Amino acid sequence: MIALVDVNNFYVSCERLFNPKFLNKPVIVLSNNDGCVISRSNEAKLLGIKMGTPLFKIKNIIESSNITVLSSNYALYGDLSNRAMALLRPYSNQQEVYSIDECFLDLSGTQGLFTIGQNIQKQLWQYLGMPVCVGIAPTKTLAKLANFCAKKQPKWSGVFDFSGISNTRIESIMREINVAEVWGVGSKTANKLKLIGVNSVLDLKKSNAIYIKKKFSINLEKIIYELNGTICSPIDVRAPLKKQIISSRSFGHPIRKYNLLVEAITTFASTAAFKSRKQGTLAEYVTVFISSSPFKETSHFYQNNVTLKLPYPTSDLKLILSMALQGVKIIYKADIAYVKCGIILSGLMDSSRAQEYLWPTKNIKQSQLTQVIDDINFKFDKHSLRLATQPINPVWGMRQSRKSQSFTTSWDDLLLVN
Amino acid sequence: MNNNKNAHGGLRAGAGRKLNSGIYGEATKVIRVPESKVVDIQRYIIQSQSENVADIIKTNLSLSYRPLDLFEHKVPAGFPSPADDHIEKKLDLNDYLIKQKEATFFVRIKGDSMIDAGIHDNDIVIVDKSQKASNGDIVLASIDGDFTVKLLSSYQSKYRLLAANEKYKPIEINESMQFEVWGVVTGAVRKFK
After folding, report:
1. Do the Cβ atoms of A325 and B52 come within 8 Å?
2. DSSP three-state, residue A213
3. Which domains does chain A have, with CATH numbers?
4. Is residue A41 classed as helix, strand or coil in its secondary structure?
5. What is the pLDDT of residues A365-393, one digit of tens each?
6. Do B147 and A415 touch (CB under 8 A)?
7. Is the ipTM of this complex over 0.85?
């Protein structure tokens, strides 16, 4: 059996841990640059606030209903996520961390699954103040569905175990759930399915897998098998290597000057190169992209990107940066108000595998300077050592007017208590 | 006979490799290098194909001749250290102060209300959220959404929060208050310098 554990309203729940004032009140968390709603407390959901709504569209209801609005605080969320995942690990010998707020646990051979689900719930609430839902079922697709049931039906109080329920009961539940709720079925596929009379989860479960494979895809065929209890996608304990690393931001204010763009690219290049080194990959290509605002009607919209091949696969910051800056030179146009830029590293390969790639790579290590910078930044603060073009407080920095403190990751940000 | 004989052999226009068509895009030349330096030279050539990297080459080449530290050579003979079998591990204050690391948080104290319990202004206290609080524990509690660190006193399911400083009165918890014990304070840390 497989359990899917997922934290309800994760970002809001993290904020509530250090701000009990937010409990039982409508709270929302905004995306980077305070753009759109990305997490909502149940109270905010009841007020009709939808995921992804831009902040300016809900200004009125925020005031009239006294909704607490917060900027996203990824340092806090990341740390609390790591803690939660570490607490869940001992429940199983196989854990797949699927996203920042959910993971699959392999519970095969374990008895008393419903009780385990309840223990998980109690522990995460006591230890981290996180409300979680647990769905338990024979496959990952069914566990996702069980989790959905646990969330939607208050009477099941957050734990739903398919193994403790009769088949007819499960099918009657599946009949009530829209096929679009199945994990891996997008809204487009759901609409196409409805055209051939597949409306509910049960309809999909009873569909002819071979026919579906022909008409749709092999993935949808697998989903049908999984809905019928056959495992097609086993628990994957390795963190998947990212095939691309993107580091990009919208600016807090538009920028026009070339040297400010260079600053931003330097910052993103060092983040991207660091991520690549951390997951042990080397990049073959670096892409630079810049863009003005598509929403401003007064000026014409300019965006451009360029992809350059690195002389050899590398994660060395200086090399990646020198390429990226050549890229900026190529696509920069003067007198344009840029609102966004970024870096993509692609063609990533395992650094151990890169040896087979070309004759000299086995002799090419990242420059020791980069290693030293990494070591020092790990030991001290994140940006203790920077390249000279990377500013501490950039003029183009993020708008995060409502960010909470980094309670768990910065000595200067600890909770102050009388 | 005709001129055909003269058309055999010799130069033909357009034949052979194009000029500058090799991987380096320019004419090349054969040179002798010491075998031990082949790899360095190859690396140099690859790197120099991208612009603006002259300084990287300098860094790499100079770092590859880093002198060995004095102690990198193992002593091949001699009496083995009698302490080798007795080295266990380094002391880590985290081990001493923290029991359940996933549920442990640091909080900074403001004010002198707990001074008689040895908790001073600006101290960092260690809060374990996994522990259930009992009578007499120092706890981090929230009352109506505000945090405070105090001594928990419970008697017949009535709670009071006591300061460790006679300047402060006990706080009686009543039903109209939103009260929660957030975690148990298990230690304090202070730096003098």
Report:
1. yes
2. helix
3. 7-76 (3.40.1170.60), 78-119+136-227 (1.10.150.20), 245-379 (3.30.1490.100)
4. coil
5. 556 667 677 766 666 655 666 666 666 66
6. yes
7. no
